[in-house]
Structures are given as C-alpha cells and as structure tokens.
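Working notes for the structural subgroup meeting. M.R. asked for a predicted model of this chain before we commit to crystallization trials. I am recording the input and output together here so anyone reviewing the notebook later can reproduce the run.

Input as submitted:
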Amino acid sequence: MTRQEDIPLQADLADHGGCANSEPFALRVLGDSMEPEFRDGNIIIIDSAAAVESGCYVLAMVDEEYIFRQLIIENGRYVLRALNEGYEEIEVPGLKAIRGVIVQRSGVRRKDHKHYG
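Returned structure, recorded in token form:
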C-alpha cells in the first residue's frame, strides 16, 4: 500500500499577501496526513490570534517547516498528532511552536465547508 508523502505546508507567514500578522489567512492542504477530516486540496483558514487548546487543529513550526496537525496537550507534553494513523506523533516544546489555529475548512461543495472552534 502506498500513500502520499507527508508534505509539510510551506509558506512565508511573515508575508501572506499583505495581511497583518493578526489577520486570518488561507492555505491549501497537501498530502493525506489529516484525512479523513481534511483531504488533499482542501482550503483551510488559519487564525493566528485564536485561542489554542488541546484538541484544536493547528499550524505549527517544526524544524523550520510549517506542519498542520491536531494539538494534544497531556501531562505537560505538547504533541502534534496526524489524523491518519500512518504518521508519527511529533512532540513540540510548547505553545511557542504554534503559529495559528485552523478555524474553517472549505471544500469543492458547500456541504464540505466546516467551522472549527
């Protein structure tokens, strides 16, 4: 069984189309690491000013690359977890790795649109 590589989201978030750092912005999901909730090609809206809590979907900086995962906070540990079980968990040092919270998903059809948070 082959699967798509885990392609990290890559963007220069310091310059996302002229938006201020606190304004929401959109990115396209690449790969299958967050399926079935987020499919390859979905558009996600990230809010860098949203409250971060365990269980929310986040955009994080890991090894100088952006990655999209679910944040799990347990027993003082901060873990980024893919929804697709074929991917390993990534432990991060804390909330300083989080760059924003996913607040909306758009799809090809209106029924695929969803709000989070």
